[in-house]
Write a structure and sequence with these properties.
single chain, Rossmann fold, binds thymidine-5'-diphosphate
Length: 216
């Protein structure tokens, strides 16, 4: 596989989606073959699982079910979309991956790391990104940004995970910071409080270095 697998992580409202789009546009302009995708989701089956995971209708969901559904969505996505794209030498930019399960399900829900790692190793056949852009933002700022996502009636729209308590989201952020600390070679920590263009420049600069060292 000669492609490059890049992931974006961080708390809800950290601006991952905007940055993925900016990076994809810049790389496409430079002539690279790029696909953008996201988890949970990215395939027909994974999108169905995304609806079950994020719908506010299923508050009865057990932690074990949540872990396995995220992993099931990932298994389909990795094997149907990501690996074939990497085999075609593409750059794959993915909105969330296994780090999200380590932060939201292991640290957030208090499920031991070994279990989450094992399940996700099986789901992904051990596929790891070469670089992860970890967008860091405080829980208060994240809440503030999410409160601006309203429907036509002016009501704030939050999914089942976003609706969880402040303390849960504090643990999730800590989880992401721990991952960044433990994996300095893979994870590039980004201060997501900066202006959008400042952040995208920082990410593009780092990506350019990776590309210089590797023919895609
Ligand atoms: P995301 O697509 O980032 O949300 P949005 O569409 O609002 O930008 O992620 C969906 C939610 O799923 C998010 O709250 C994080 C959560 N999540 C996990 O808890 N575990 C996982 O493994 C993944 C991939 C996401």
């Amino acid at each position: 596989m000669n492609g490059l697998f890049i992931t974006f992580e961080g708390p809800d409202g950290s601006g991952k989606t905007t940055q993925i789009q900016q990076l994809a546009n810049s790389l496409i302009k430079l002539g690279y073959d790029v696909i953008t995708t996201r988890e949970p989701g990215g395939t027909r089956i994974s999108d169905l699982l995304r609806n079950i995971l994020l719908s506010t209708e299923y508050q009865e969901m057990k932690d074990q079910t949540e872990v396995l559904l995220y992993a099931a969505s990932r298994a389909q996505h990795v094997h149907e979309i990501i690996i074939p794209a990497l085999e075609q030498n593409k750059i794959v930019l993915c909105d969330r991956y296994i780090d999200a399960s380590m932060a939201y399900q292991s640290v957030g829900l208090g499920i031991d790391q070994k279990t989450i790692k094992g399940i996700n190793h099986f789901a992904s056949s051990g596929l790891q990104p070469i670089r992860t852009y970890m967008m860091d933002v405080s829980v208060n700022e994240s809440k503030n940004r999410l409160s601006k996502r309203t429907n036509k009636k002016g009501e704030i729209i939050l999914d089942r995970i976003e609706q969880k308590a402040h303390d849960y989201h504090k643990k999730v952020r800590e989880g992401f910071l721990q991952i960044a600390n433990k994996n300095p070679d893979r994870v590039h920590l980004v201060n997501a409080n900066q202006a959008i263009d400042v952040i995208s420049e920082e990410i593009l600069k780092d990506m350019t270095k990776i590309l210089e060292n590797r023919y895609v």
